[in-house]
Amino acid sequence: MKKITSALVALGLGIALSASVQATSNDEAVAERIKAVGSVCIEGDDSCGGAAAAPVAAGGTRSGEDVYSSKCASCHASGVAGAPKFGTTEWADRGAKGMESLLATAISGVGAMPPRGLCADCSDEELQGAIQHMLDSAK
Questions:
Q1: Do residues 73 and 87 touch, judged by C-beta distance below 8 A?
Q2: How many CB atoms lie within 10 A of CB 77?
Q3: How far is CA 13 from CA 1, 16, 19, 27, in A?
């Protein structure tokens, strides 16, 4: 009877051990399937082991006219969602607010215009150039 009991205990432990190994294997398989494909290193972040890519060389500052034509015109040429139209007195009225105020509004966004308009990659100087270009267009 003792041998049968020992055999049953051993069999039970074997099944439990097998289930435990299977669960561990499944957990490892799931972890492998959902692991991150890559990682992002930001310049100056030492936790990446110095693997951060060098910053992309800028092509220089774009002119106000270039920024307006490529980013701002999509709304300001036709006055979409209340955007002041290029070449109208709407810009003369806005000019009275001063460049500092207009630039702050362009950076933070206003009404339907998101922060930085449609130019998320514009520097403050480029935004200021585009604003000046629109101010200069006022009739």
A1: no
A2: 14
A3: 18, 5, 10, 21
- Tens of pLDDT, residue by residue over 45-101, are 776 665 444 444 455 689 999 999 999 999 999 988 889 999 998 888 888 889 999
Task: Please check the confidence at residue 4 and state whether its pLDDT lies above 50.
Answer: yes
| C-alpha closest to that of 67 among 109, 126, 123, 132 | 126
Tokens found for residue 67: 């920024």
- Exposure letters 6-16 (e unless 16+ CB within 10 A, then b): eeeeeeeeeee
Residues 106/37, Cβ–Cβ less than 8 Å = no
How far apart, in whole angstroms, are the C-alpha atoms of residue 132 and residue 111?
20
- How far apart, in whole angstroms, are the C-alpha atoms of residue 115 and residue 93? 21
Cα–Cα distance measured from residue 76 to residue 89, given in angstroms and rounded to the nearest whole number: 13
Q: Which residue carries 């294997």 as its tokens?
A: 25
